[in-house]
Design a protein that fits this description.
Layout: E1 5-10, E2 15-20, E3 38-42, H1 45-55, E4 60-66, H2 70-82, E5 86-90, E6 97-102, E7 108-112, H3 125-133, E8 135-141, H4 150-155, E9 159-163, H5 175-178, E10 183-187, H6 194-204, E11 209-213, E12 219-223, E13 226-230, H7 245-258, H8 263-277, H9 290-304
Parallel strand pairs: 1-4, 1-8, 2-6, 4-5, 8-9, 9-10, 10-11
Antiparallel strand pairs: 2-3, 6-7, 11-12, 12-13
């Protein structure tokens, strides 16, 4: 029997409050008048991945710890509205929250509420095993306590991906994810030497593919010791917010990878999805559709020629 899910997403659910600011960094002032206003909506890293791979036609299930609070209901409602199965483990600490300051150029500064996790938190072993047995692949968000689920996913025989986001290459918290995943995504924003970091991840861990994204400069991709440059893709509309671009890149890449495409094609899908995400206002949790992605990929491939 084929697995019920193509992608099991672990962690990364939560709520963001979006505040548009006149510039970043924001100079000190007693007050600012904000337009177009302040909006609170469901959608953090795991939610973005779940929404994105679902929009690309992959059968998706999301698992995370969520509080019995207003923010938790926003997260549950997002999944209900999109028809994405969501297994919620009760969290006494409450649903994860953040405030995103978004500048006019689309850059953001995220302030995460670090009180929304407890060291004793765990995803129930039986639940992880059951969902893993029904899935082809797991994407693990680096939110606490997902690292403890990694050995269970390995036992189930799943391939695993993760996104280290703005890892500096040294923080030991990220290593449990970086060294146990088959596909590793991360941003170059905090890396002094991106090539050294991606090679170190591959040398010390399980990763078959490591991709370090660099926004408008494209990405570095390491496959079997070979490092290549992935060109950036021009966004289809003005850039309004970079939030979720990395999650979209990972989702596009996974769409190709689970479909048996070449790593070059996977990277193209990722670049297209990431560019599209930058055109979506921070107040929405939306993703590129399968039809849009394939059409854009065919267009770009035709322009490149044989």
């Amino acid at each position: 029997m084929s697995p019920e899910n193509d992608v099991l997403v672990l962690g990364g659910s939560g709520v963001d409050t979006i505040v548009h600011v006149p510039e970043l960094p924001l100079p000190f002032a007693d007050s600012y008048m904000i337009r177009p206003g302040i909006v609170t909506r469901a959608g953090q890293s795991g939610d973005f991945v779940a929404v994105s791979v679902d929009a690309l036609g992959l059968r998706t299930h999301h698992l995370d710890m969520v509080g019995d609070d207003h923010e938790g209901e926003l997260v549950r409602a997002l999944h209900r509205e999109r028809g994405i199965p969501f297994t919620c483990v009760p969290s006494d600490a409450g649903t994860k929250r953040a405030v995103n300051l978004v500048g006019p150029d689309g850059r953001r500064l995220s302030l995460y509420d670090d009180s929304r996790a407890q060291e004793s938190d765990r995803l129930p072993e039986a639940t992880v095993r059951e969902l893993a047995a029904a899935s082809r692949h797991a994407h693990v968000v680096i939110t606490y306590p997902c690292a403890y689920a990694m050995p269970l996913l390995r036992e189930a025989g799943l391939t695993v991906s993760t996104d280290l986001h703005n890892w500096d290459g040294g923080n030991p918290y990220h290593e449990a994810f970086a060294l146990e995943a088959d596909l590793v995504f991360l941003s170059t924003v905090a890396l002094a030497d991106p090539e050294r970091t991606v090679r170190d991840i591959a040398a010390r861990g399980r990763a078959r593919v490591v991709v370090a994204t660099a926004g408008a400069e494209g990405a570095l991709m390491l496959v079997d010791g070979q490092l290549t440059k992935v060109p950036a893709v021009e966004p289809p509309a003005p850039v309004v917010d970079s939030n979720g671009a990395g999650d979209a890149f990972a989702s596009g890449f996974l769409f190709g990878w689970l479909g048996g495409q070449s790593v070059e094609r996977c990277a193209l899908y990722g670049a297209i999805a990431g560019a599209h995400a930058c055109t979506v206002p921070a107040t929405r949790t939306d993703a590129i559709s399968r039809a849009e992605l394939l059409a854009r990929a065919d267009e770009l491939t035709a322009l490149q020629g044989p």
